[in-house]
């Protein structure tokens, strides 16, 4: 069986992975260098946008959400080691992304009323369990969903959400918007067909999930032995 996928989405994933890595390198090794964190702000909005696309496009949303949760669990130990937390002192960002995906699934399959009931519960859970980014992650994903249907309103809501987070350099995350809008306007979209059985199909499907705990583990080891 041959499947068609959007290569432009792969470009966004690569940019998100590269900027996320730079952010983590800066946070762990060079916290005094602002440039790493500024560039790193670009990563999360791209992941939030990709989660939105994932829920919209997947034919198996349950499996998609379970996959995110599974890798969130796997990533927790290297995440805690890399950032010097106790094992469950703070949960990694895949956990609130999983809640975000669940909320969007409810919106897609149920009703707006059910979504508005689930959303505050997801936000509360993300705060109570001290998930990285907590309410910011979930609201940002919802803003990306809004941006897809009403771009101007989505952009304004994203600006508002970023203003809610009183952190240095946070507004630099809006630098990801041009890439997202280019994809929305089809300038980055390029369809490619590959067979299900190909290794590339499997690699592209799980590359980020594998990369996330792997790079955190590597950063921990580098920090342990060389810094």
Write the layout of secondary structure elements.
Layout: E1 2-6, H1 7-29, H2 34-40, H3 43-57, H4 61-83, H5 94-109, H6 112-128, H7 134-149, H8 151-164, H9 177-184, E2 191-195, H10 199-226
Antiparallel strand pairs: 1-2
Beta-strand content bin: under 5%
Structural class: mainly alpha
- Can you tell me the residue ranges where pLDDT is under 50 for at least 5 consecutive residues? none
Distance between the termini: 49 Å
Morphology call: globular
Number of structural domains:
1
**What is the average per-residue confidence, as pLDDT, rounded to a whole number?**
89
Short description:
By secondary structure, the chain is mainly α. It contains 10 helices and 2 strands, in the order βαααααααααβα. α4 packs parallel to α10.
What does this structure look like?
With 227 residues, the chain is mainly alpha-helical. The protein has one domain (2-226). The protein is built from 10 helices and 2 strands; from the N terminus they run βαααααααααβα. The protein has helices at 7-29, 34-40, 43-57, 61-83, 94-109, 112-128, 134-149, 151-164, 177-184, 199-226; strands spanning 2-6, 191-195. It has a two-stranded antiparallel sheet. Helix 4 (61-83) runs antiparallel to helix 5 (94-109) and helix 4 (61-83) runs parallel beside helix 10. The mean pLDDT is 89.
């Amino acid at each position: 069986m041959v499947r068609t996928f959007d290569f432009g989405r792969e470009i966004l994933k690569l940019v998100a992975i590269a900027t996320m890595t730079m952010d983590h390198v800066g946070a762990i090794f060079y916290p005094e260098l602002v440039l790493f964190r500024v560039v790193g702000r670009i990563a999360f909005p791209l992941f939030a946008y990709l989660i939105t696309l994932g829920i919209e496009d997947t034919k198996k949303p349950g499996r998609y959400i379970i996959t995110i949760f599974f890798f969130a669990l796997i990533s927790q130990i290297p995440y805690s080691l890399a950032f010097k937390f106790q094992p469950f002192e703070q949960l990694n960002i895949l956990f609130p992304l999983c809640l975000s995906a669940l909320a969007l699934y409810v919106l897609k399959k149920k009703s707006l009323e059910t979504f508005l009931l689930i959303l505050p519960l997801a936000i509360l859970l993300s705060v109570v369990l001290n998930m990285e980014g907590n309410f910011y992650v979930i609201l940002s994903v919802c803003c990306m969903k809004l941006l897809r249907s009403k771009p101007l309103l989505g952009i304004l809501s994203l600006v508002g959400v970023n203003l809610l987070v009183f952190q240095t350099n946070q507004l630099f995350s809006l630098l990801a918007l041009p890439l997202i809008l280019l994809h929305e306007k089809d300038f980055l979209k390029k369809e490619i067909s590959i067979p299900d059985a190909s290794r590339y199909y499997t690699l592209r499907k799980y590359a980020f999930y594998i990369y996330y705990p792997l790079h955190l583990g590597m950063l921990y080891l580098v920090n342990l032995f060389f810094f």
